[in-house]
Amino acid sequence: MKLTVGLAQIDCKLGNIKKNLEKHISFIREARKNNAELVVFPELSLSGYFLKELVSEVGLKRDSEEINFLKKETIAGPDLVFGFVEECDSKYYNTSLYISKGEVSGYHRKIFLPNYGMFDEMRDFSKGNELSLINTAFGKVGIEICEDTWHPIITETMVRYGAKILIFLQASPSRFNKDGNISMSKDYLICKFYSMIYGVYILMVNRVGYENGINFWGGSAVFKPGGEILCKGSQFNEELVIEKIDLEMIRYARLGFPLLRDQDSDVLFGKI
Question: Which of 21, 36, 104, 224 matches a 20 to 30 Å C-alpha distance to 138?
């Protein structure tokens, strides 16, 4: 089975849901014109990232007017994954939704909230406390949000229970190496490692633009089972990256490099 995906590498406007929603609609429609069956946006794509005191102002419930508007847009396709501040029971979560044919198929609330350096998410958000595999027309999909990807237990668990595609939503700030160039090696390295070890496709979508003097570098990419980068977006520029993936390659990758087959889950998840 082949699947055309779109990576919507956008510049999110901090705290401006209306402008961000308009941009989502524009990119969804462009993806539809390119026959994409799935389009993915970055972390907190509806709100922007460094929200601080704006969190409560941009929080949305899943039945909000804005979310319902996006649901209607997916009735004609493509499927949609995006990030937003979810308000639920007087708490706020860094959440991503998977919407297909006008309905929410699944969601992921960010579990690992970074609280070091420039990051202060524990002040603003409640932690997610569960993993959910999403059943789609393309097979089981797992979603991780930025810091989650640095904790292998999440990826290990989702793959163990059948994920064939992993979607990584990022708001990764620019970091420079000693030569003054953008350093993306760590972000790419972890994606390449997971795609090679577990034989999965990884759709990594990072945003661009500036917030409070912080720049986001983009570089969104599709990683093929086995670790190869199929395509990647440019640095710093808004764009829609379109790529066709062949899900049959998952089977071939796992046959050729059968680490997942040989994984001893009883030892891995057993008591010490």
Answer: 21
Report strand pairing: 239-246 vs 79-88.
Answer: unpaired
Residue 265: what pLDDT?
63
Q: What is the pLDDT of residue 125?
A: 97
- Three-state DSSP at 223 gives strand
Q: Which residues of the chain have pLDDT under 50?
A: 272
Question: Structurally, what CATH architecture does the domain formed by 2-269 represent?
Answer: 4-Layer Sandwich (3.60)
Q: Classify residue 119 by burial, with Cβ atoms within 10 Å: 0-12, 13-18, 19+.
A: middle
Q: Counting runs of H as helices and runs of E as strands, what totals does the chain give?
A: 8, 14
